[in-house]
Amino acid sequence: MSRGRGVRRPARLAIAAAGCAVVLGGAGWYWQSELIGVGARWYLERVAAREEASGSLAERRAAVARMHGLLLLSPPPDALVPELFDLITAVSSRVASGAIDFPWAAYVYNSYERDLARDRPLGVPRRSRSEVEREVARYVDFYALRKRPDVDGVRLRDLAGAPAGESFTVEEIEQAAREGRDLTRE
Considering only CA atoms, which of 140, 41, 135, 123 is closest in space to residue 89? Predict the structure, then answer.
């Protein structure tokens, strides 16, 4: 190859690789909610598979207990934990993508948990993951849950703990009340 013919092959490859990286990075940024949902589902499925193989419930019990704490529910009996963890797995990717927003996800989880405790308090027969997924799809269809165009879903800034807007800690609210300040006007 002569020197006068332009850019050499290694330079062309570097430019092409940089262009591909920019395109893939942009696509990843644009569809980050969906990617976070796929990653969450993948991770939760691995946790369930690992614990089912070992016969343990530790991580699944902790995740279900956290969910129950967020919803102000008492922790469920151990017999219900595997199926409720499968429910969390089925709902997580939909919540991350914004297909189901947080209040509806809480309603779906609470309704499923209530029906499970009422109809099968011992967790027997346990639904398979695909049956739990079909039940979530039934809720989505029945309540006509659709992705709202103004809802982004879970973004990287949400996972990083960046402030999401107007929210206050209990301490800030109590301090403002002691000082006579109105937080809604600040």
Answer: 41
Cα–Cα dist 110/88, whole Å = 11
71: left (phi over 0), alpha (psi -120 to 50) or beta: alpha
Q: Which residues contact 36 (CB under 8 A, 6 or more apart)?
A: 96, 153, 154, 155, 156, 159
Q: Are 94 and 105 in contact (CB under 8 A)?
A: yes
H/E element, 70 = helix 58-70
The answer to whether 85 touches 48, Cβ cutoff 8 Å, is: yes
Interval 123-166: pLDDT, tens: 999 999 999 999 999 999 999 988 877 777 777 777 676 555 56
Q: Is the pTM of this model over 0.85?
A: no
Output the CA–CA distances (angstroms, integers) from residue 49 to 38, 45, 96, 178, 186, in the order listed: 16, 6, 22, 51, 49
